[in-house]
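Good day; I would like, with your permission, to put a structural problem before you. What I wish to show you is a protein chain and, alongside it, a tokenised description of its three-dimensional fold. Here, with my thanks, is the record as I have it:
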Amino acid sequence: MNFWVARAAWACGWRAGCLRSASNFPLPPPGAVDVAELLRDATAAEEGPREAAARRLPGQCSVLLFPGQGSQVVGMGRGLLRYPRVRELYAAARRVLGYDLLELSLQGPQEDLDRTVHCQPAVFVASLAAVEKLHHLQPAVIENCVAAAGFSVGEFAALVFAGAMEFCEGSALSAEEFL
């Protein structure tokens, strides 16, 4: 028995079982209108015929996955400073956090950078700085991005990248989440 036949048989058996059992809901009167069908028809009439969305090949799509706590290392972000807006990201983070995250990221010490209160914002800002580099070098990757996700604090970077959260909000949350 193929899948569709088996599924249809199951559905008919389920419906028959429901009809045979006692129910508090009365059966609809003969000739009753199916409201769900009316809504589908009304929606289809308003929208008109839909064109099929152009399907992109997997090689034409990108997904960004942002790292989380544990990926921090002294010196991170050094190679990103020459790209537009990266220094602005670090300056905005400094205003929100009240300390120089760029200096800590570049100079350490590693023990301070490893503290959750510091590494979370450091990974968050470095991740978005990396997006700036990617946007500069390969803008098509950013333009063709179909999804973004992140591990731990990387979720905040993914939300900022997607436009669901402001950068300053993500900076503050990355520092406060584990205080």
User: Anything to note?
Assistant: The CA atoms of residues 86 and 129 lie 5 Å apart. The domain at 61-176 is CATH 3.40.366.10 (Malonyl-Coenzyme A Acyl Carrier Protein; domain 2). The mean pLDDT is 80. The chain has nine helices and two strands.
